[in-house]
Every structure is written in structure tokens, then in C-alpha cells.
Amino acid sequence: MQQNTDSIESLKEETRQLVGHQLPKETFYDFTHPNNRMLVAVTSLRAGYADVAYKLFQTIAEEGPKENANHHFAYVRSLIEMAEMDAQAGRFSQAETLMEQALEAYPESMGYMMSRVHLEVYLAYYKFYAGKKEEAMKQIESICKREQQKFEALPEHDAKSLIGPGLCYAIHQYALFYAVDGAWIQAVNKMKEMLPYAPAIDPAAVQEAERLLAGEKAEEAFNRYTEAICYNDA
Asked: 136: burial class by Cβ within 10 Å (0-12, 13-18, 19+)?
């Protein structure tokens, strides 16, 4: 514990020098508070100090789940941030482990901050690139089926705004798994499954994509479908 405390104190001084001018001084008064460290970690990450940000996230994650909701959010988000950073560095197995821990501890009240569906898709992505392609494909298919059932249980307008973005994101990633392997026909067919669920579609672009597909230009059709379908929840 003393070693961890010393490490936190060292990180406090390092980050105070790096990003202290971007934050209220009070942020550094109680650095044992996980939310203060979270704020400093996020600020450090945005400022380009990824290594020190990772270390701060790690100190929060190492403390484990918390009873206090705000502290628990910091714990879960730290795992998620670390997973993303590991994935960016090509450490997909490590990213997979961290995201599994995050999802296990994920509280439904965190939904306003980050979508559980998106995190589940990230996990499938990590598995895919960690060499677990079959498991990743099964997982993404399961997510899609579950979200499709949720979509169908709601009025269309509500479904497209509440379920559509996450469902389309999952289908898009499913299609990308096919694209990575050069299976462009399967990739296009999977992209087309988004059409009933997407909040916004460009009909002219869809028609152009279909013409490309008919002309046996499946890769170009895939790219056009990507441009034709908008599902990002702002």
C-alpha cells in the first residue's frame, strides 16, 4: 500500500507539472480521490501524455469496484480507457481482459455516459484481433440479435433513436469483420441489414451502392453503403 501511495504522490507531482495549468488547483489537493485522478488522467491523455494517463487509470483500476457510485464510475471508465489504449498499441489480449472486467462491473446507471452495446462491440473487436475470430463473430452476432429484438419491441420512432445507433454500430462492425477478410459480398449484405434500423439514410447513395454491387464492384458498394447510412447518436 505504501508503494502505491508513493506512486500516486509521484504521479501527482508529475501531472501537476504537465497539466496543472489546465485544471483547478483543488484537483490536486486530495489525489487519493479517484475522481480527481480520473480528471487529471483524462486531461493528461487529451494533452498527449498517454503514458502518465495510463498509470493514473491503473491506480484507479487497481483499487477495484467501489460502493460509491461516482467512484465506481471512475473505476469502470479507467478499465475502458486502459483497454482502448492497449488496443491502440496492439495489445488486444490485454484490452480484452480489461474490457471484460469493465463490462462485468458496468452499472446500468452509466448508460448516459457510455453505451454498454458499444463496449460489447469493442470487446468483440478486441477478441477478433487477439486471434479469436470465431468467438468474436459469435459474440457480435449475439449482440445484433439481442438488439434487434429490443428494436422490434418498441415503436419505430423510439426504436430508431434509442436502439438504432447501438444496433447499427454492431451490424457495421460485423460487416467490417467480413471486409477485413476480403469477403466483400458478405460484408455488403451485412451492411444492408442496417437499413431498417438506421435513424438516417441517403436513398440516392443506397441506389448507387446497389448499382456498384450489380456491376460486381462489391468493395466499392460497401464503401458507398458506409457513406449512405448514418447512425451516430450525437
From this structure: buried
CA angle (166, 193, 137) in 5-degree steps: 70
| Structural domain spans, the chain | 1-114, 133-233
One-letter identity of residue 160: K
218 contacts 185 by C-beta, under 8 angstroms: yes
Asked if 59 and 40 count as a contact pair (C-beta separation under 8 A), the reply is no
Question: What values do phi and psi take at 120, rounded to 5?
Answer: -65, -35
CATH class, 1-114 region: mainly alpha
Q: Which three cell numbers stand for residue 125?
A: 473487436
Top CATH class of 133-233 equals mainly alpha
pLDDT digits (tens, 9 = 90+) for 100-144: 999 999 998 888 888 999 999 999 999 999 999 999 999 999 999
The DSSP H or E segment spanning 92 is helix 92-105
